């Protein structure tokens, strides 16, 4: 099967972005571009957790509702959520009303605050899991990697929840730690240029 499809502009893109109308813009402007903002990183890891057992489209169409419900994924604020907030969120039809995932997000907000105290920022921590280019598998042929397994294990050790290896791998892909746009995708080179220009968090270079 051809790994690419043609967009409306006639240019090739990763085949998966044709699966839903919401995917094209996400693919072209977000997926794989490197991120260092802590709230954005926290948001994506939480949303990948909410996706567990569901499709990414389900999450993407509700993303603005999630952002509103979870205060822009400011983990400093979410960490102060109480049982009243859990009850409120369980009644919010704009998000995924799954008690375990909601409670995990609040728990993970507290763990994120701990991580910032220990590492300086979430970005400093997460970008240590960027794989060496020679270690990468063929794009989009795997759902886990040595790095995602290691990241998942370390997060769980630190008390995070809903952060399995597959969730961690999707997070690494989407936040630009891996460029998994297929060869021939018009966005792949744009992502690669963005990654080369990106200043690795926690470095002086």
Helix and strand string, N-terminal first? Answer: EEHHHHHHHHHHH
The rough form would be described as: globular
- Secondary structure: number of strands: 2
Main sheet: strand order: 1-2
SS-derived structural category? mainly alpha
Task: Give the fraction of residues assigned to helices.
Answer: 40-55%
Oligomer: single chain
> What's the helix count?
11
Q: Which radius of gyration do the C-alpha atoms yield? A: 17 Å
Percent of residues in β-strands: under 5%
Sheet with the most strands, sense and barrel status: 2 strands, antiparallel
What is the residue-mean pLDDT, rounded to a whole number? 93
Roughly how many Å apart are the termini? 41 Å
Poorly predicted regions are none
Summarize the structure in words.
The protein is an all-alpha fold and 205 residues long. The radius of gyration is 17 Å and the shape is globular. The model has no long low-confidence stretch (mean pLDDT 93). The chain contains eleven helices and two strands; from the N terminus they run E-E-H-H-H-H-H-H-H-H-H-H-H. A two-stranded antiparallel ribbon has the order 1-2. 50% of the residues lie in helices and 3% in strands.
């Amino acid at each position: 099967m051809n790994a690419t499809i043609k967009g409306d502009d006639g240019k090739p893109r990763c085949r998966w972005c044709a699966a839903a109308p919401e995917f094209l813009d996400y693919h072209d402007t977000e997926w794989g571009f490197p991120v260092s903002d802590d709230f954005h990183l926290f948001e994506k890891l939480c949303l990948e957790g909410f996706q567990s057992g569901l499709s990414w489209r389900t999450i993407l169409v509700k993303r603005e509702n999630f952002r509103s419900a979870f205060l822009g994924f400011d983990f400093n604020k979410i960490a102060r959520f109480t049982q009243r907030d859990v009850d409120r969120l369980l009644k919010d039809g704009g998000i995924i009303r799954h008690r375990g995932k909601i409670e995990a997000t609040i728990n993970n907000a507290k763990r994120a605050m701990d991580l910032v105290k220990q590492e300086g920022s979430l970005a400093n921590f997460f970008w240590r899991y960027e794989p060496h280019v020679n270690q990468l598998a063929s794009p989009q042929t795997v759902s886990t990697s040595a790095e995602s397994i290691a990241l998942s294990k370390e997060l769980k050790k630190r008390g995070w929840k809903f952060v399995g290896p597959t969730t961690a791998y999707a997070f690494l892909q989407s936040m630009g730690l891996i460029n998994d746009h297929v060869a021939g995708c018009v966005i792949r080179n744009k992502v690669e240029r963005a990654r080369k220009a990106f200043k690795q968090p926690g470095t002086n270079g």
